Amino acid sequence: MLDSKVPAGPLAEKWSKHKFEMKLVNPANKRKFTILVVGTGLAGASAAASLAELGYNVKTFCYQDSPRRAHSIAAQGGINAAKNYQNDGDSVYRLFYDTIKGGDYRAREANVYRLAEVSVNIIDQCVAQGVPFAREYGGLLDNRSFGGAQVSRTFYARGQTGQQLLLGAYSALNRQIKKGKVQSYTRHEMLDLVKIDGHARGIITRDMITGKIESHEGHAVLLCTGGYGNVFFLSTNAMGCNVTAAWRAHKRGAYFANPCYTQIHPTCIPVTGDHQSKLTLMSESLRNDGRVWVPKTKELSEKLRSGSIKPADIKEDDRDYFLERKYPSFGNLVPRDVASRNAKEMVDDGRGVGKSGVAVFLDFADAIKRLGKDTVEAKYGNLFDMYYQITDENPYEQPMRIYPAVHYTMGGVWVDYNLMTTVPGLYALGECNFSDHGANRLGASALMQGLSDGYFVIPFTVGDYLANLGSFAPVDKNHPAFEQTRKEVEDKINVLLSLKGSKTIDDIHKELGKIMWEYCGMARTAEGLTKAKGLIQNLKKEFWSDVKVLGENEELNMSLEKAGRVADFIELGELMVDDALNRSESCGGHFRLESQTEEGEAKRDDENYTYVAAWEFAGENQEEVLHKEELIFENVKLTQRSYK
Amino acid sequence: MSNSKPVLSSSLGRKLIMSLTGIFLCTFLIVHLIGNLQLFKNDEGYAFNNYAYFMTHFTPIKVVSYLLYASIVIHAVYALVLSIRNKAARPVNYAQFDGKANSTWNSRNMGILGTVLLVFIATHMQNFWWKYHNDQVPYIEYQTDLATGNTTSRVLEASEFNDYQVTVDNDVETVKARDLYKQVDFAFQNPLVVGFYVLAMAALAFHLIHGFKSAFQTIGVSHKKYVPIIEFIGVWGFGVIIPIGFALMPLYFYFIK
Amino acid sequence: MAQHMNLTLKVWRQKNDKTKGQFVTIQAKDIADDMSFLEMLDVVNEDLTRLGEDPIYFDHDCREGICGMCSLVINGRPHGPKYGITTCQLHMRSFHDGQTIVIEPWRAAAFPVLKDLAVDRTSFDRIQQAGGYVNINTGGVPDANTIPIPKRIADEAFEAATCIGCGACVAACKNASAMLFVSAKISQFALLPQGQTERYERAQAMVDQMDAEGFGNCTNTGACEAECPKGIKLSNIARMNREYFTAKFFREEDVHTHN
């Protein structure tokens, strides 16, 4: 049984009490410690800046050419905070409750409460940094209701909230780089974790320009490397997003928790063809005014697909506004998992639209009639433009076509209340960890979690760990563990470079994506998952025997970069399938067809599955070992989620 | 900031020099045009030659004129310095560069336009300024009957001329002056000169359509209301009226006089 | 259905920053018009890989027009023939069958070529490090609604802040000037109350660093504004100039160095 190290005491006092109880590092001693931060998104940049401000020496690593380009930048909608500026009944407890419920009761109460608690500080911090949030005419901050929340608690910066928040954190990071407290390594990829006496003491990186394999030593390592959605090949993640750092750490002893919890976002632009490289998300805010529908009959759908009729030709009576029909009180604003699943149901029923038939409509005709084109343009203009650029269809004149796409991974590296993994000294922050969103994440909560972990949690908890080390000695960079790990990394690269088969890396990656989407996507069955496991194992063999990796190590080598990442995705894919198979209940984004209510909603099995599944790596080609962390709900009552 | 670079060795400082000298040269153009409008008077150059004397002998104006010469030199030198630096900022050129898609031709070719203008200024000064200052222009005497206001003129030989002179005798005013007007008339009988002047004024127009508003942008003027006014003045004042006004002079002498 | 086309690509290939590069002609066959430009390059790269040839290296990441990583000068235009988008948002329907497409990296001394079409833009980071921030630590800040900011000011600051740091302004400028980029950040902070405390110092420090990186000088052609995928306005450059000259001529006492 895993120990989450959640402090005792009433929920609302846990974090304050814990902050007091944690040991502090004397200001003069902080400079004797070095902390390695991998990834420079919201979690990484905010953590690195905050730790450097405290006096620690920090090194940051990112695979992009600049810390500013981490994929946090792409978040559109907003960031939640329990400020209650709108006087509409919001509170820390309500944000906590909504998040727990939204996560389908599979998140840790204490973590979620802390997240809601520090959410208010995040907004203050960002405003002080000069983040240009949207404001009302009176000059105060504007809020909107987002992702089905009943209160307006979402702060936003037009459609670019993630970018503005990341630039805020990046600016704080830049300030510390200028001061010499942070050393920034860009176009560097972490390829392994170095452990000494069981503790994380360094990482091995590859300089992607020169190919140089480097060792970096530190007293603690923070993984802020984001999610693993690219295991599906097609997702809303950036092309470079990968699981390699987290996965290699996993293979060094960090348990991986709930890997099967993936969020499929309902409002994405549908796939057009095999050449597709990624999927583009259209902000969820579109569902505030757009109405989701498909034709009532297959016949009409077929006519639409063949192009013999246009959407406007379908009479009101022949349209099925299925979300409004099934969920009268939430309507089009049901949570993401519910909206996605229903879209899939319509498509499976043969009522999908678009040339491929794998899409549903999101229609703004009524909104334009009600609000006028100008208002709709003011609210969604940039999104409509983006849609038009990609599809060449004008959403002011015809309904948008949308379909769910992989967007976020709730699962991740297992961490305790202090965000420490099962490897002492190794931490995981932001999307990289598993802790706050349970089985489904609510809109505008990812940014909140990344910044909460980085600005307001890790500066305290990492200090406690370092203070307890009992020594200020620098990490011994000549320790044989560095040389040995470095050699293992080099060997692996050499093996990859020796692969001269017939398949490209993308061939394999696309194949993996298809397996994952088919069997471990929006709906899963024991049968399908078992089949997927076999398929993935075969794919793994194919990868190591028939893939083609070009070039050499000592150059910018796209082929090599991809190869290492895809090799890890394959292994992760297998674990996701194992985890999905193990969890024979439905919850949040994990929908097992065997476990649904009479109305076809996700049905949890609280008796048997109120736990976090944390997997331990047991060796190459071995079955991973399951460890459970019991989820204890002292404050909320577990109920069947209902959005009727 | 003690360790900050001095303003004039910064990129913005150099641009400021371009901007200020440019604006100064623009204001000169207004004065120059208004003064030269006297060429259009049908008075055998009486007004113009008096004006020429005044402009070259009134001390405050002389001071300003030296500032003007300095501005021309500084404007040209800094243009050269900036151009060299700009070239260094892009050591490898594009194989294909579609400038017209994002900017006007004149804004991208201020250097070429400026070079045309520099050659023009040199020619222009050699033609008139140099000759005027080095006694290479004819002389003229005007006699005005102050009672009737009628003026007659006659060409003076060099031996008859000492210096600019105004005398009044018996209600008759006699003015002896260097006849720059005739020199103008003479120069503008040459179609090559006329052609070059008109071409240079076209270059001036394009230079200033961009340059005038650009100068204000450089000194930091950005205002919803005033920038459009500046742009209007730049285009219609300095891009149309002033160059056409100047260009009419050679054309007038060539075709009409 | 999607239209398909065949294209002739003239692509800049360069092994690394120490070797000379050259144009290489590559045929792109059977390209669907609903592919993005980068997906077209993906297809070309897959073909090259199958032939055992080194794929074309180009920078890209989010592929939704926000990370600023993608670049490419396409037929003489940064981010290609359309306005207001990045290369990753450009689709092949903007081209026609049989067309020749010349693809080059950003060209600037301050953006050395790393490989093929990828350039090193860390000069932009160094400019930001010189002063693109408010000097505050985490924690201890006032409540977010303490200082009301007029909506007009907040909106203007936001518009300046939308810069994605792609470098198209430098690429488009005939002088390879980075002033639009630098002015966007200076403007954001010059407008907001939070940026006031170090307003003048910031302008000086960032301009100094910009000059040190070897960018060219603005001649106000407006090419940067026209090609900026985020529509950053030229008026930001005027504001930067004003900030800088004010600092240099009138606010010397407000400008101090600190470590």
Q: How is this fold's topology laid out?
A:
The complex is a heterotrimer of chains A (644), B (257) and C (259).
Chain A lengths: L13 H8 L5 H4 L3 E5 L3 H13 L2 E5 L17 E2 L11 H11 L6 H21 L24 E2 L5 H18 L3 E4 L2 E9 L2 E9 L5 E5 L2 E4 L20 H8 L4 E2 L4 E7 L22 E5 L2 H9 L12 E2 L1 H5 L9 H13 L11 E4 L1 H7 L1 H19 L8 E10 L2 E2 L12 E3 L17 H22 L12 H19 L6 H15 L6 H21 L11 H25 L23 H4 L1 E6 L8 E6 L14
Parallel strand pairs in A: 1-2, 1-9, 2-5, 9-17
Antiparallel strand pairs in A: 3-4, 6-7, 7-8, 10-16, 10-18, 11-15, 12-13, 12-14, 14-15, 18-19
Helix pairs in contact in A: 3-6, 3-13, 4-5, 5-13, 11-12, 15-16, 15-17, 16-17
Chain B lengths: L10 H26 L9 H12 L1 H31 L15 H4 L1 H24 L5 E7 L5 E6 L8 E5 L2 E7 L1 H8 L3 H28 L7 H31 L1
Chain C lengths: L3 E10 L8 E11 L4 H14 L22 E2 L2 E2 L21 E5 L8 E3 L2 E2 L2 H10 L19 H11 L6 H5 L6 H13 L7 H14 L10 H5 L7 H15 L10
Parallel strand pairs in C: 1-5
Antiparallel strand pairs in C: 1-2, 3-4, 3-5, 6-7
Walk me through the structure:
- Chain B: The chain crosses the membrane at residues 12-34, 63-84, 110-129, 192-212, 233-255.
- Chain B: This is Succinate dehydrogenase / fumarate reductase cytochrome b subunit.
- Chain B: Keywords: Membrane, Transmembrane, Transmembrane helix.
- Chain B: InterPro entries: Cytochrome_b-558, SQR/QFR_C/D.
- Chain B: It comes from Sphingobacterium paludis.
- Chain C: GO terms for molecular function: 2 iron, 2 sulfur cluster binding; electron transfer activity.
- The complex is a heterotrimer of chains A (644), B (257) and C (259).
- Chain A has 644 residues and is an alpha+beta fold.
- Chain A has three domains: 11-261 and 410-467, FAD/NAD(P)-binding domain (3-Layer(bba) Sandwich); 267-406, Succinate dehydrogenase/fumarate reductase flavoprotein, catalytic domain (Flavocytochrome C3, Chain A, domain 1, Alpha-Beta Complex), CATH 3.90.700.10; 492-610, Fumarate reductase/succinate dehydrogenase flavoprotein-like, C-terminal domain (Methane Monooxygenase Hydroxylase, Chain G, domain 1, Up-down Bundle), CATH 1.20.58.100.
- Chain A has 18 helices and 19 strands.
- Chain A is globular, with a radius of gyration of 24 Å.
- Chain A starts with 13 loop residues before the first helix and ends in a 14-residue tail after the last strand.
- By secondary structure, chain B is an alpha+beta fold.
- Chain B folds into two domains: 7-94 and 109-138 and 179-256, no CATH class; 139-178, no CATH class.
- Chain B has eight helices and four strands.
- In chain B, strands 2-1-4-3 form a four-stranded antiparallel sheet, covered by helices on one side.
- In chain B, helix 1 (11-36) packs across helix 7 and helix 1 crosses helix 8 (226-256).
- Chain B is elongated and about 75 Å long.
- Chain C has 259 residues and is α+β, with helices and mostly antiparallel strands.
- Chain C is 34% helix and 14% strand.
- In chain C, the strands form two sheets. Chain C has a five-stranded mixed sheet with strand order 2-1-5-3-4. A two-stranded antiparallel ribbon of chain C has the order 6-7.
- In chain C, a hairpin with a 2-residue loop joins strand 3 (73-74) and strand 4 (77-78).
- In chain C, helix 2 packs antiparallel against helix 6 and helix 5 packs antiparallel against helix 6.
- Chain C is elongated, with a radius of gyration of 21 Å.
- The model of chain C has no long low-confidence stretch (mean pLDDT 96).
